[in-house]
């Protein structure tokens, strides 16, 4: 596999999405099978169940909203992973063009992706958190 997420120039950027809020778009052609995003543990905030409960019990905040909107659950560690870099803006599609691969911190292109295309993962393939409802009403619809 080719690693296409070398820093500082990534093969993707964030801009307004016609699907939802902000999205991740290919800055250049990304071939099928290429790793377009790879995070590191030190680049995520791991939120435990207890930390989440403290956030929920506190006054509503932007942090809580961000955790709800831009985290996903990793069953192996029983933690929410909040992605600190702009990879957190990946949107959902039931016909994704990228997907997690191996661990929860790597995503590959499922097909050739042309410059300018928005990148999508299928959130239904993510582990379901038993103690946090992520992504608001949209998350509830996905879990049905």
Essential attributes:
18% helix, disordered N terminus, 3 helices, three-stranded antiparallel β-sheet, 144 residues, globular, single chain, 10 strands, alpha+beta, Beta-clip-like
Describe what you observe in this structure.
Strand 5 (71-74) and strand 6 (79-83) form a beta hairpin. The protein has a 3-stranded antiparallel beta sheet, with no helix packed on it. A 3-stranded antiparallel beta sheet has the order 4-6-5. It has a single domain (12-143), classed as SET domain (Beta-clip-like, Beta Complex). With 144 residues, the chain is α+β, with helices and mostly antiparallel strands. Helix content is 18%, strand content 29%.
At a glance:
By secondary structure, the chain is α+β, with helices and mostly antiparallel strands. Helix content is 18%, strand content 29%.
Q: Compute the average pLDDT.
A: 87
- Helical stretch tally: 3
H-E string: EEEEHHEEEEEEH
Runs in which pLDDT lies below 50 for 5 or more consecutive residues are: 1-7
CATH fold type = Beta-clip-like
Topology:
Blueprint: E1 12-16, E2 22-26, E3 35-38, E4 44-47, H1 49-57, H2 62-70, E5 71-74, E6 79-83, E7 91-92, E8 98-101, E9 103-109, E10 120-121, H3 136-143
Parallel strand pairs: 7-10
Antiparallel strand pairs: 1-2, 3-9, 4-6, 5-6, 8-9
């Amino acid at each position: 596999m080719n690693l296409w997420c070398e820093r500082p120039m990534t093969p993707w950027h964030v801009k307004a999405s016609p699907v939802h809020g902000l999205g991740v778009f290919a800055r250049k052609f990304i071939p099928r099978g290429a790793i377009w995003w790879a995070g590191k543990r030190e680049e995520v905030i791991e939120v435990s169940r207890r930390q989440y409960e403290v956030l929920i019990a506190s006054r509503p905040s932007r942090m809580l909203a961000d955790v709800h909107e831009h985290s996903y659950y990793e069953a192996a560690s029983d933690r929410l992973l909040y992605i600190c870099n702009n990879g957190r803006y990946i949107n959902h599609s039931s016909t994704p063009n990228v997907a997690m691969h191996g661990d929860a911190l790597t995503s590959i292109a499922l097909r050739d992706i042309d410059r300018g295309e928005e990148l999508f993962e299928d959130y239904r393939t993510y582990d379901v958190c038993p103690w946090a409802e992520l992504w608001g009403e949209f998350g509830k619809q996905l879990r049905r």
